Inverse folding.
Protein backbone atom coordinates (compact mmCIF):
# COMPACT_ATOMS: atom_id res chain seq x y z
CA UNK A 1 0.00 0.00 0.00
CA UNK A 2 1.44 3.40 -1.05
CA UNK A 3 0.92 6.66 0.74
CA UNK A 4 1.45 10.18 -0.54
CA UNK A 5 3.90 12.54 1.16
CA UNK A 6 2.72 15.95 2.18
CA UNK A 7 4.43 18.92 0.52
CA UNK A 8 6.61 19.70 3.61
CA UNK A 9 7.60 16.03 3.81
CA UNK A 10 8.50 15.95 0.11
CA UNK A 11 10.61 19.10 0.44
CA UNK A 12 12.39 17.62 3.44
CA UNK A 13 13.18 14.41 1.54
CA UNK A 14 14.49 16.38 -1.48
CA UNK A 15 16.57 18.63 0.73
CA UNK A 16 18.51 15.70 2.18
CA UNK A 17 20.64 14.95 -0.92
CA UNK A 18 21.17 18.68 -1.55
CA UNK A 19 22.40 19.14 2.00
CA UNK A 20 24.65 16.11 1.62
CA UNK A 21 26.14 17.57 -1.59
CA UNK A 22 26.77 20.93 0.04
CA UNK A 23 28.38 19.27 3.03
CA UNK A 24 30.63 17.24 0.72
CA UNK A 25 31.57 20.35 -1.29
CA UNK A 26 32.42 22.25 1.87
CA UNK A 27 35.07 19.74 2.85
CA UNK A 28 36.19 18.34 -0.51
CA UNK A 29 39.34 19.77 -2.15
CA UNK A 30 38.58 21.91 -5.21
CA UNK A 31 40.68 22.41 -8.38
CA UNK A 32 41.69 25.97 -7.52
CA UNK A 33 44.70 27.88 -6.21
CA UNK A 34 44.56 30.91 -3.95
CA UNK A 35 46.94 33.65 -5.10
CA UNK A 36 48.07 36.85 -3.43
CA UNK A 37 50.66 39.62 -4.06
CA UNK A 38 54.17 38.18 -3.85
CA UNK A 39 57.69 39.49 -3.49
CA UNK A 40 59.26 42.09 -5.77
CA UNK A 41 62.95 42.48 -6.56
CA UNK A 42 64.98 45.38 -7.93
CA UNK A 43 66.81 43.95 -10.92
CA UNK A 44 69.27 46.86 -10.81
CA UNK A 45 70.41 45.86 -7.33
CA UNK A 46 70.95 42.78 -5.20
CA UNK A 47 68.70 39.88 -4.32
CA UNK A 48 69.69 37.78 -1.31
CA UNK A 49 73.24 39.11 -1.35
CA UNK A 50 73.95 38.70 -5.06
CA UNK A 51 73.73 41.17 -7.92
CA UNK A 52 70.74 40.31 -10.09
CA UNK A 53 72.45 41.54 -13.28
CA UNK A 54 76.20 41.15 -13.81
CA UNK A 55 77.74 42.32 -17.08
CA UNK A 56 81.27 41.86 -18.40
CA UNK A 57 82.85 42.69 -21.76
CA UNK A 58 81.33 46.19 -21.92
CA UNK A 59 81.44 49.29 -19.70
CA UNK A 60 78.51 49.60 -17.32
CA UNK A 61 77.09 52.68 -15.64
CA UNK A 62 76.06 53.46 -12.07
CA UNK A 63 72.26 53.56 -11.89
CA UNK A 64 69.76 55.24 -9.62
CA UNK A 65 66.12 54.42 -9.12
CA UNK A 66 64.73 50.90 -9.22
CA UNK A 67 63.30 48.45 -11.72
CA UNK A 68 61.25 45.99 -9.69
CA UNK A 69 60.05 42.70 -11.15
CA UNK A 70 56.84 41.49 -9.50
CA UNK A 71 55.41 38.11 -8.55
CA UNK A 72 52.35 36.45 -7.13
CA UNK A 73 52.33 33.77 -4.45
CA UNK A 74 49.96 30.85 -4.95
CA UNK A 75 49.09 27.89 -2.79
CA UNK A 76 51.29 24.88 -3.49
CA UNK A 77 49.99 22.47 -6.14
CA UNK A 78 49.45 19.78 -3.49
CA UNK A 79 47.60 22.10 -1.08
CA UNK A 80 43.88 21.36 -0.70
CA UNK A 81 41.68 24.39 -1.37
CA UNK A 82 38.24 24.15 0.22
CA UNK A 83 34.95 25.85 -0.54
CA UNK A 84 35.46 28.16 2.44
CA UNK A 85 38.79 29.29 0.96
CA UNK A 86 37.13 30.04 -2.38
CA UNK A 87 34.31 32.02 -0.78
CA UNK A 88 36.76 33.97 1.39
CA UNK A 89 39.05 34.77 -1.56
CA UNK A 90 36.15 35.79 -3.78
CA UNK A 91 35.33 38.77 -1.57
CA UNK A 92 38.92 39.93 -0.94
CA UNK A 93 40.82 42.37 -3.15
CA UNK A 94 44.21 41.07 -2.00
CA UNK A 95 43.53 37.52 -3.13
CA UNK A 96 42.44 35.83 -6.34
CA UNK A 97 40.93 32.41 -6.91
CA UNK A 98 42.49 30.88 -10.01
CA UNK A 99 41.99 27.50 -11.71
CA UNK A 100 44.88 25.33 -10.58
CA UNK A 101 45.67 24.41 -14.19
CA UNK A 102 46.20 28.11 -15.01
CA UNK A 103 48.86 28.33 -12.29
CA UNK A 104 50.47 24.90 -12.51
CA UNK A 105 50.73 22.43 -15.39
CA UNK A 106 48.20 19.66 -14.79
CA UNK A 107 49.29 16.09 -14.17
CA UNK A 108 52.73 16.99 -12.85
CA UNK A 109 54.29 16.46 -9.46
CA UNK A 110 55.53 19.35 -7.34
CA UNK A 111 59.12 18.50 -8.27
CA UNK A 112 58.27 18.43 -11.99
CA UNK A 113 56.51 21.79 -11.69
CA UNK A 114 59.54 23.32 -9.96
CA UNK A 115 61.79 22.00 -12.72
CA UNK A 116 59.39 23.38 -15.35
CA UNK A 117 59.37 26.85 -13.74
CA UNK A 118 63.15 26.84 -13.42
CA UNK A 119 63.53 26.00 -17.10
CA UNK A 120 61.06 28.75 -18.04
CA UNK A 121 63.10 31.23 -16.02
CA UNK A 122 66.31 30.15 -17.74
CA UNK A 123 64.75 30.52 -21.18
CA UNK A 124 63.31 33.90 -20.18
CA UNK A 125 66.74 35.13 -19.05
CA UNK A 126 68.33 34.04 -22.33
CA UNK A 127 65.62 35.79 -24.35
CA UNK A 128 65.82 38.92 -22.19
CA UNK A 129 69.59 39.13 -22.68
CA UNK A 130 69.33 38.62 -26.43
CA UNK A 131 66.53 41.19 -26.75
CA UNK A 132 68.46 43.84 -24.77
CA UNK A 133 71.75 43.34 -26.62
CA UNK A 134 69.95 43.33 -29.95
CA UNK A 135 68.21 46.58 -29.02
CA UNK A 136 71.63 48.11 -28.18
CA UNK A 137 73.29 46.62 -31.30
CA UNK A 138 75.75 44.65 -29.17
CA UNK A 139 76.86 41.11 -29.87
CA UNK A 140 76.52 38.30 -27.34
CA UNK A 141 79.97 37.04 -28.31
CA UNK A 142 81.58 40.13 -26.80
CA UNK A 143 79.28 40.90 -23.90
CA UNK A 144 78.49 38.40 -21.17
CA UNK A 145 75.37 38.89 -19.05
CA UNK A 146 74.62 36.82 -15.97
CA UNK A 147 71.16 37.00 -14.40
CA UNK A 148 70.54 35.63 -10.92
CA UNK A 149 67.27 35.73 -9.02
CA UNK A 150 66.73 33.27 -6.18
CA UNK A 151 63.51 31.38 -5.50
CA UNK A 152 61.65 32.75 -8.53
CA UNK A 153 60.48 30.71 -11.50
CA UNK A 154 58.58 31.27 -14.70
CA UNK A 155 59.02 33.73 -17.59
CA UNK A 156 57.26 36.86 -16.32
CA UNK A 157 60.39 38.83 -15.33
CA UNK A 158 61.67 38.92 -18.92
CA UNK A 159 60.74 42.53 -19.68
CA UNK A 160 62.29 43.84 -16.45
CA UNK A 161 65.50 41.86 -17.02
CA UNK A 162 65.85 43.42 -20.49
CA UNK A 163 65.21 46.92 -19.17
CA UNK A 164 67.76 46.37 -16.41
CA UNK A 165 70.42 45.36 -18.92
CA UNK A 166 69.64 48.38 -21.09
CA UNK A 167 69.81 50.73 -18.09
CA UNK A 168 73.15 49.35 -16.89
CA UNK A 169 74.71 49.61 -20.35
CA UNK A 170 73.07 52.67 -21.90
CA UNK A 171 70.61 54.32 -19.50
CA UNK A 172 68.24 56.63 -21.36
CA UNK A 173 70.72 56.92 -24.22
CA UNK A 174 71.81 60.45 -23.30
CA UNK A 175 73.58 60.03 -19.97
CA UNK A 176 70.56 59.75 -17.70
CA UNK A 177 68.88 56.86 -15.94
CA UNK A 178 66.15 54.91 -17.68
CA UNK A 179 64.16 55.07 -14.44
CA UNK A 180 64.55 58.82 -14.02
CA UNK A 181 65.36 58.01 -10.39
CA UNK A 182 61.88 56.57 -9.84
CA UNK A 183 60.83 53.17 -8.60
CA UNK A 184 59.43 51.50 -11.70
CA UNK A 185 57.78 48.09 -11.50
CA UNK A 186 56.27 45.83 -14.10
CA UNK A 187 55.76 42.41 -15.56
CA UNK A 188 55.73 40.71 -18.93
CA UNK A 189 57.42 37.95 -20.87
CA UNK A 190 59.80 38.87 -23.65
CA UNK A 191 61.12 37.06 -26.70
CA UNK A 192 64.47 37.47 -28.41
CA UNK A 193 63.03 40.09 -30.77
CA UNK A 194 61.81 42.23 -27.88
CA UNK A 195 58.11 41.43 -28.10
CA UNK A 196 56.33 41.64 -24.73
CA UNK A 197 53.76 38.98 -23.81
CA UNK A 198 50.99 38.60 -21.24
CA UNK A 199 51.58 36.82 -17.94
CA UNK A 200 48.45 36.78 -15.74
CA UNK A 201 47.94 37.86 -12.14
CA UNK A 202 48.62 41.52 -12.96
CA UNK A 203 46.00 42.89 -10.54
CA UNK A 204 47.85 41.25 -7.67
CA UNK A 205 51.23 42.33 -9.03
CA UNK A 206 50.19 45.99 -9.08
CA UNK A 207 49.41 45.69 -5.37
CA UNK A 208 52.83 44.18 -4.70
CA UNK A 209 54.45 46.96 -6.73
CA UNK A 210 52.72 49.79 -4.87
CA UNK A 211 53.40 48.12 -1.52
CA UNK A 212 57.12 48.20 -2.34
CA UNK A 213 57.21 51.84 -3.40
CA UNK A 214 56.58 51.82 -7.15
CA UNK A 215 54.80 54.77 -8.76
CA UNK A 216 54.81 53.43 -12.34
CA UNK A 217 53.84 49.95 -13.52
CA UNK A 218 54.68 48.56 -16.96
CA UNK A 219 51.97 46.14 -18.05
CA UNK A 220 51.52 44.09 -21.23
CA UNK A 221 48.97 46.07 -23.25
CA UNK A 222 46.53 43.16 -23.56
CA UNK A 223 46.26 43.03 -19.76
CA UNK A 224 45.35 46.67 -19.16
CA UNK A 225 41.79 45.84 -18.10
CA UNK A 226 42.98 43.31 -15.52
CA UNK A 227 45.58 45.73 -14.18
CA UNK A 228 42.97 48.48 -13.76
CA UNK A 229 40.52 46.23 -11.89
CA UNK A 230 42.20 46.61 -8.48
CA UNK A 231 44.66 49.42 -9.23
CA UNK A 232 46.18 50.91 -6.04
CA UNK A 233 46.09 54.68 -5.63
CA UNK A 234 49.30 56.39 -6.67
CA UNK A 235 50.32 53.81 -9.30
CA UNK A 236 50.40 54.82 -12.96
CA UNK A 237 49.91 52.15 -15.61
CA UNK A 238 52.00 52.25 -18.77
CA UNK A 239 51.00 49.62 -21.38
CA UNK A 240 53.78 48.14 -23.51
CA UNK A 241 54.04 45.72 -26.41
CA UNK A 242 57.79 45.79 -27.12
CA UNK A 243 61.08 46.49 -25.37
CA UNK A 244 61.63 49.46 -27.68
CA UNK A 245 58.22 50.86 -26.75
CA UNK A 246 58.90 50.38 -23.03
CA UNK A 247 62.23 52.26 -23.27
CA UNK A 248 60.61 55.03 -25.28
CA UNK A 249 57.81 55.41 -22.72
CA UNK A 250 60.25 55.57 -19.80
CA UNK A 251 62.43 58.16 -21.55
CA UNK A 252 59.35 60.27 -22.30
CA UNK A 253 58.28 59.94 -18.68
CA UNK A 254 61.74 60.95 -17.44
CA UNK A 255 62.10 64.04 -19.61
CA UNK A 256 58.44 65.06 -19.67
CA UNK A 257 58.52 65.07 -23.45
CA UNK A 258 56.67 62.92 -25.92
CA UNK A 259 53.65 60.75 -25.40
CA UNK A 260 53.45 58.31 -22.51
CA UNK A 261 50.76 55.71 -23.23
CA UNK A 262 48.16 54.86 -20.63
CA UNK A 263 45.59 52.12 -20.06
Amino acid sequence: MLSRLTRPQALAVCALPVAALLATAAFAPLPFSVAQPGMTANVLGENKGSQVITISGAPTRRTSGQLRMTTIEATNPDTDVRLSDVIDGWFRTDQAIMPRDSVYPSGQSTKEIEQHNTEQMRQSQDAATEAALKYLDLGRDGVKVTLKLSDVGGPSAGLLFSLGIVDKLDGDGSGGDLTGGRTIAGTGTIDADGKVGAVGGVALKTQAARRDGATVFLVPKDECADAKSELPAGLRLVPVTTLQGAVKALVALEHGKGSVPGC
User: Anything to note?
Assistant: DSSP finds eight helices and twelve strands in the chain. The helical segments are 7-27, 83-90, 100-103, 110-135, 158-169, 202-211, 224-229, 243-255. The domain at 38-73+119-255 is CATH 3.30.230 (Ribosomal Protein S5; domain 2). The first strand starts at residue 32 and ends at 42.
